[in-house]
Backbone:
């Protein structure tokens, strides 16, 4: 299968949204009182409240690739091994970084590292553990729900599977949206009616949406569009949806009653980039963006560690500078996080995955 390089571009933009969401929250300099009291900092923080929806978009992307690369000949055990090799090395590394952060950087009194056991068992953020979820909640949810959908894919024919997945999506999104006043909640560890974990519901729904995008993509992927006017029209849609999605994720709190509209906009954008009928999606389908996409997982699981260090040893000591150069400070933070993630990819993620694949696959 040829790599969809333009999707790597989208993934890289989404990971920047997640890092930005944590930069403007309690994890870094926004929580330093003199900074968060400035009107400009407060405005940016309020306008980017929905940046966490990038996680839901990653679920959709993951669901698409799950079915795109799946074969009925492969059993669930194969996927279990593949997921374990893909996720576990960086999960262990993240657990180490978390312990270092809480013991030596943040210095939480009487901190006990037992919560990392849930993380290493892929239970963080699933509703089984008690207490706040780490960023690894996304990995745990992805690990178990991809296995669940793989079982469905092997057991049912396509017509029955279409119905089952549709019902799952409708149930999960409806339950979340009706519980949180029309919005997808950022609280992935919240339990609805003492049964339904929000993080798991988001995962079930997002991966299910990815399944239907896969079904649509299979039906149109070989249809070419040579007409200039049509390609120009598709380009207009691509630009409009890029602006709509990332503008509302980062720069402007959506004025409508539900932030689910941002998810709908992303679904449209994702489909347009898959079918590549516009000039933007075609331009982004190049090797440079594919390279950037490699680092997404390492950036995601290492970025909080970097932000904790920046907060304690850099931003706390340069409050006036940040107040006067807020955007520049955010850009520097993003740059440092990306560089650290790239280093982690080459020193930790890539060599360990290569070793485990050679040994177990």
Residues:
């Amino acid at each position: 299968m040829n790599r969809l390089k333009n999707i790597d571009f989208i993934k890289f933009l989404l990971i920047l949204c997640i890092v930005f969401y944590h930069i403007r929250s309690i994890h870094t300099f926004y929580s330093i009182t003199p900074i968060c009291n400035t009107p400009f900092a407060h405005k940016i923080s309020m306008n980017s409240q929905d940046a966490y929806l990038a996680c839901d978009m990653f679920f959709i992307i993951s669901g698409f690739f799950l079915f795109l690369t799946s074969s009925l000949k492969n059993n669930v055990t194969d996927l279990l091994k593949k997921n374990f090799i893909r996720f576990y090395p960086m999960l262990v590394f993240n657990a180490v970084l978390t312990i270092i952060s809480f013991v030596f950087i943040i210095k939480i009194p009487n901190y006990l590292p037992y919560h990392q056991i849930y993380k290493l068992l892929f239970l963080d953020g699933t509703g089984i553990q008690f207490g706040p979820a780490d960023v690894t909640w996304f990995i745990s949810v992805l690990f178990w729900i991809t296995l669940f959908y793989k079982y469905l894919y092997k057991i049912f024919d396509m017509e029955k599977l279409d119905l089952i997945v549709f019902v799952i999506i409708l149930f999960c999104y409806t339950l979340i949206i009706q519980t949180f006043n029309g919005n997808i909640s950022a609280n992935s560890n919240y339990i609805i009616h003492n049964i339904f974990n929000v993080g798991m519901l988001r995962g079930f729904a997002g991966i299910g949406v990815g399944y239907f995008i896969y079904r649509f993509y299979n039906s149109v992927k070989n249809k070419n569009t040579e007409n200039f006017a049509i390609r120009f029209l598709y380009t207009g849609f691509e630009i409009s949806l890029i602006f709509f999605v990332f503008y509302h994720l980062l720069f402007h709190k959506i004025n409508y009653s539900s932030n689910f509209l941002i998810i709908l906009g992303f679904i449209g954008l994702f489909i347009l980039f898959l079918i590549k009928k516009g000039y933007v999606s075609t331009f982004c389908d190049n090797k440079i963006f594919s390279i950037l996409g490699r680092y997404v997982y390492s950036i995601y699981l290492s970025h909080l560690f970097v932000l904790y260090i920046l907060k304690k040893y850099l931003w706390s000591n340069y409050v006036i500078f940040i107040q006067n150069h807020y955007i520049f400070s955010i850009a520097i933070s993003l740059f440092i996080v990306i560089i650290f993630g790239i280093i982690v990819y080459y020193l930790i993620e890539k060599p360990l995955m290569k070793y485990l694949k050679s040994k177990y696959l």
The chain has two domains: 1-47+286-309+317-361, 54-220.
